[in-house]
Amino acid sequence: MSAAEEVVAEGHEAVEAVPKRAMTLSTGTSLLVLAVLLIVPAFVKNFIIFQMTMLLIYGLAVLALNILTGGSGQFSLGQSAFYAVGAYTSAVLMEYFNVNYALTIPVSATVCFGFGYLFGKPALRLSGVYLALATFALATAMPQLLKLNFLEHWTGGVQGLVVTKPDAPFGLPMSQDVWLYYFTLVVTLAIYIFSVNLLRSRSGRAFMAIRDNEIAASSMGVNVALYKTLAFGVSAGITGVAGSLGAIAVQFVAPDSYTITLAISLFLGMVVGGVGWLPGSFVGAAFIIFVPNMAESISKGLSGAVFGVLLFLVIYLVPHGARQIAILGQQFAGKLRKN
Amino acid sequence: MELFTNQVLAGIATGAIYACMALAVVMIYQAIDHLNFAQGEMAMFATFVSWQLMQWGVPYWGAFVITLVFAFVGGVAIERILFKPLAKAPVLTNVAGFIALFAIINSSAGLIWDFTIKQYPTPFGSSPFLGSQLISTHQAGMIGVTVLLLIGLYFFFQYTRIGLAMRAAASVPESARLVGINTSWMIALGWGMASAIGAIAGMLIAPVVFLEPNMMGGVLIYGFAAAVLGGLTSPFGAVVGGFLMGIFENLAGTYIPGVGNELKLPIALALIISVLVVKPAGLFGRHIVKRV
Predict the structure, then answer these.
(1) Rounded mean pLDDT of chain B?
(2) What are residue B291's phi and psi, to 5 degrees?
(3) What are the strands, taking DSSP E only, across chain A?
(4) Which of B91, B221, B262 sits opposite A129 (nearest CB)?
């Protein structure tokens, strides 16, 4: 409101810095989690397997956002747009060109990487709330872009497209759901390992330098523009893979499945899981899949309100999300061992 | 030519609403440096309250005033209870807080008044204004109320002690504290006023878009676009941006072929992104310089 031309923005930090080592789980815990994930399908019903598949898929999408925000310190409320592009790429390739479902995934990853990289270009000039706003607008507009007339031939317009669920190959004695679960698990694992290594690499260090202090990073020779757009591209690419897997698992794509609500869910998943803590992505995914159901069982009409209240509780009580709980757990275990 | 004038006038009328929303967004942005994603829902809830009052037999203007007081108190309460503790938290946590607030208000309104579309009365009637076919009395009323509001706000900020204190608290909080201004309460006051301005926008637009819990979604996006266009740091710019957005929306819908209702939001998106890319500070905003 003052007429001063130049104002110093002291500003809030976008995200809190997370040390590099604190970003992952220890080897022992990781192997334990993996073993559980491998064995579980033998004991549960198909519907639960489907839900676990969705958990892995949303976990991937949250992980992608985590690389963008926790890694390079940029915001996105528009991940649903990249998710939608991935889903549609797979669906169109599978239904119109009869491409094998597994081959559509690298294609989606590439397409979304390009899309994210290009979107990252104008977003370069934005930070904090401005970036949140631009991506928010992208997510809001996406369903309407997908419904456009001249795309209708490919996207099926409002009706969407039906995707065929793949059978287990080589005559493996598994139901479609179980096969898809293992397929998703393998893809998730590959991407998780890729992400961990990415953040430990030279590029990862560049991301984190930008996150912690952009000016300092650039004065030390980090190409800020390149790494910021790269982070957007990688994040979009992984989200695209999640979108593809999601389309195959749900067997259906339609513009209205990819609204701003999805983008917000993914964002919340990241906050709940702990920003910058990669394993937390899957905890966050569990939160966004199961808590709305729980909220609905507490009160049908008020599910949104219950969800909101739970979210406020998380923000106030454990602002670092699942990471904080994991650290507390570790300290507690350490104390027990000493006694 | 008549079509053109007609569309421009209609654009100014909807622009008045966008101007109010943008102003509400900018006021909170000035106070706490965050965009309130729940602004539209707060306005929607206030509009429902006024509707309920009218159902109970309160006359329109009575309900209008009671709702403004309610919205003001509600805005202050939300700041005091929910967002004051988050003042030092990272941007991310605040965005999550706004989203939670959005979910809570939207779902409570849906539970109390359910999701069916309701008629909302207008005090101005909908006959042609001054006998001309160009603009209806309700549209003229929308413009009139907004202009009155803007003049009132101008005098408040320019010529009252408390307005001056609020400006001081927003532009240089440290110095403001040193001269004895309670900046924390100035922020709460800003929230209350923003909430009341949003309520006015809600009550004016409700006869046009009809009353339902999701009625403010599109309006809020246009409000954001208007605020970005005018500059997030300039209340005056937000108002100008609001009117420009209204006119732009109507003209684009009339003259660009293929731009119907379904392209409304993508247009706002394109505008937000192009303004942010070409002139991030907006038309009237201050240029932000970072200190190393």
Answers:
(1) 84
(2) -95, 140
(3) 6-8, 161-162, 252-253
(4) B91
pLDDT band at A112 (very low <50, low <70, confident <90, very high): very high
Instruction: Report whether pLDDT(B99) > 70.
Output: yes
B128: β partners? B136
Q: Is B33 on the interface with A (CB under 8 A)?
A: yes
* Residue A122 contacts B, CB cutoff 8 Å: yes
Token pair listed for A293 = 């159901």
**pTM for the structure as a whole:** 0.81
Residues of B in contact with A301 (CB under 8 A): 107, 110-111
> What ipTM does this complex have?
0.78
- Is the Cβ of B112 closer than 8 Å to some Cβ of chain A? no
- What token pair was written down for A204? 């990862």
Asked if residue B1 has pLDDT above 80, the reply is no
Q: How confident is the model at residue A1 (pLDDT cuts 50, 70, 90)?
A: very low
- For A15, the closest chain B residue by CA position comes to B90
Q: Which residue has the tokens 């609001």?
A: B242
Q: Among the ranges A267-271, B30-34, B260-264, which has the highest mean pLDDT value? A: A267-271
Nearest-angstrom CA–CA distance, A128 and B177: 26
Tokens encoding A285? 């995914």
Indicate yes or no: CB of B33 within 8 angstroms of CB of A12. yes
First to last CA, chain A: 60
Question: Would you say the C-alpha torsion A110, A166, A78, A285 has a positive or negative sign?
Answer: negative
Q: Which residues of B touch A275 (CB under 8 A)?
A: 92
Task: Please tell me what DSSP assigns to residue B120.
Answer: -
Cα angle for residues A205, A208, A212 (degrees, 5° grid): 140
Contact assessment for residue B232 and residue B285, using Cβ atoms and an 8 Å cutoff: yes
